[in-house]
Amino acid sequence: MILLTRRATFSASHYYWNPEWSAEHNEQVFGRCANRNGHGHNYTLEVTVAGEPDAVTGFVVDLKWLRDVIEREVLVAYDHRHLNLEAPEFARTIPTTENIAIAAWNRLEPAVTGAGGARLSRVRIYETPDIFAEYRGEA
Amino acid sequence: MRAYFGRRYMVSASHRLHSDALSAEENRAAYGKCNNPHGHGHNYVIEVLTGGVVDPDTGMVVNMATLDKTVKVRVMERFDQTNLNFDPLFVDRVPTSENLCKAVFGLLKNALPCGELEYVRVEETENNFFEYAGE
Description:
The structure holds 2 protein chains of 2 kinds.
Chain A: E1 2-14, H1 23-30, E2 39-51, H2 63-78, E3 81-82, H3 83-86, H4 97-115, E4 118-128, E5 131-135
Parallel strand pairs in A: 1-3
Antiparallel strand pairs in A: 1-2, 2-4, 4-5
Chain B: E1 2-15, H1 24-31, E2 40-53, H2 64-79, E3 82-83, H3 97-108, E4 116-125, E5 128-132
Parallel strand pairs in B: 1-3
Antiparallel strand pairs in B: 1-2, 2-4, 4-5
């Protein structure tokens, strides 16, 4: 089996806020990330698929196809957007790096599985070069 | 829902690769320039990956500020701006990046505020890195 990874970047804003909590508790847990005016990052998304190379093409998947899937399923929804306000999955879920990894997986998985041949193995999101989260689906 | 949270830290430290079990000549053969008597240094990148259930209240596997504090106290303050050869953990172990990787893993394994330690990666330079995920 081969693992193949494609990287993409998007720029988005967000804030961390749990509406069940008081303002003080939000600020205590989330610090500066709780500022309701939001802040932004240049995110890097790494999408890893697993499969066997095709006998004819030698590809696990066509990288151009994977680029287009990432663009269509994730970047259109997240790039130059405010995640809390514009991405429906974050209307009630806090767009932490962990939750963005899970949400990006949920956006990508049907398209990758539906194409046949390869399966989604891992989604990793870098919020900065030193902070990242990863989701591998339900074990 | 299980996910992973990773963080990268930088530690600047010096070391000398030298084994008392080897002769001077064997040490030079095994370690080359890394055996030079006065040591040399690196900006190590230490990558820590934690795994756990995403807390539904916070959306987090682990609170980054708490993780940072743990790594700072257990690892950074111990190794940053030091000579690794003088650390008690390396008295009878050569401070290779493999052994540094295992040492950091051991220092963090049972000290995480929450979640489990998945692996520790030590990048000695941009071109070589080492990973340890426990036995």
